[in-house]
């Protein structure tokens, strides 16, 4: 006898599995379904996004512009943090030599 699961249940199970840090096997156990069943749903969802994963409206140009701006800011912050790290490394090496 084959169990029937509603499309909403499948969709939510896939969403949970894709967004969680927990192993898929653990999620399947908690939901009371076979691990292979959940894997099949995830695979099918990846092939046919419209069936199981919520549709998202097309992103606007301003959305991508905001992402680009954020990316530039993050690169700038990363570069600064790397420079600070390098300075601290040099200072630590300098002070380590002073103690000897």
List the SSEs and their pairings.
Layout: H1 7-19, H2 24-31, H3 35-47, H4 49-52, H5 61-99
The unreliable regions are none
Q: Helix count?
A: 5
* Biggest beta sheet summary: none
Estimated helix fraction: over 70%
Mean pLDDT: 85
How would you sum up this structure, described in words?
The structure is a single chain. By secondary structure, this protein is mainly alpha-helical. The protein contains 5 helices and no strands. It has helices at 7-19, 24-31, 35-47, 49-52, 61-99. The mean pLDDT is 85.
Short synopsis of the structure:
By secondary structure, the protein is mostly helical.
Keywords:
single chain, 100 residues, mainly alpha, 5 helices
């Amino acid at each position: 006898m084959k169990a029937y699961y509603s499309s909403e249940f499948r969709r939510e199970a896939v969403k949970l599995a894709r967004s969680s840090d927990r192993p898929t096997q653990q999620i399947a156990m908690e939901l009371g379904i076979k691990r292979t069943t959940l894997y099949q749903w995830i695979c099918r969802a990846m092939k046919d996004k419209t069936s199981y994963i919520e549709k998202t409206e097309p992103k606007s140009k301003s959305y991508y512009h905001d992402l680009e701006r954020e990316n530039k800011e993050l690169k700038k912050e990363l570069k600064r943090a790397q420079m600070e790290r390098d300075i601290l490394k040099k200072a630590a090496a300098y002070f380590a030599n002073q103690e000897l």
